[in-house]
Amino acid sequence: MTPVPAASAGGLVAEVYAQVAEEMRLVIPPALMHSPSPQVLAAYWAVAREPLVTVGAVDRGTKEAVAAAVSVANICPYCADMHTVGMYDLTGEHAAEAVGSDRVQDIADPALREVVAWARNAHLLDEAVPPPPRLTPADRAELIGVVVAFHYLTRMVNVFLANFLLPPGLAPWSRRRFKQGISRVMRPTLRDPRTPGLAAGLLPAAPLREDTAWAAPRPAVAAAIGAADRVFRAAGEATLSPEVRDMVTIRLADWRGEDTGISTDWCERLIADLEPADRSAARLALLTAFASYQVNEEVVDEFRRHHPQDRTLVEVAAWAAWSAAVLVGARQSGPVLGPSTAGY
Predict the structure, then answer these.
(1) How far apart, in whole angstroms, are the C-alpha atoms of residue 226 and residue 27?
(2) pTM (global) more than 0.85
């Protein structure tokens, strides 16, 4: 895939790039990888920015920890590294390494530990815990928004970017010092206040659907989720046949969050009777939704034989990743049992 270079971007791509560069100090790789589809690029930025980086009910350190926990759950080392680096500056090295190493029980702060434990297993129906009862509706909207954003983004990163943000050969002590140094450089991007709603304003407004109603208590998050949801769903309708979309949707309805394992035979059995073009698209969509780390060059090359456009590749993966992410968010809806407490 060839991203749109920042120097030659125009229209909506240039508008998104300008916001990303203003807030992140550069046009980051996750933005570049979405750029062949301008609407999907704007939708990605809306769902990534509005729950995570804006001034809201929940502190940024807690939200970075949630993003890192989801990244660990989805086997996305790139995103886990990025967001534990953020935690180094905001919550401290010990908590960051506990989340990144999947040792939730070692987080010293009980409030942070409770939120991370919830986020880490939010996709697992049989092991999930409910959102902490002390959260207000606004708290929940932000944190579920981060969970949904990173169930989407980690799948996309696994498909399109390298596995690691940091050099993979570093010794543990060197990795920690490397992260510490990066976190100091990133401090302005982590601590500077961000005005809510700017990214959502890049897309036409759209109402929340029933499965995204959890976002309603935070207007900026609701605007981002509603607008992006319409874009992602339209991308699937434009690029995938009804038969392929139905196949993924039905499989998701039965999904309890379990890992599919090393073999992809389950996928090949499902798509065996499809015509070659649909079979290649269904393979990419199913693996993106359920086992994104297994999307390899062979899967993409076969898809390209029938669907050569970069835009189509991005939009099929985005629809599948969003379909899984929005399901995880819908399963988090439920009654709020008590008032918020300090620390969130």
Answers:
(1) 24
(2) yes
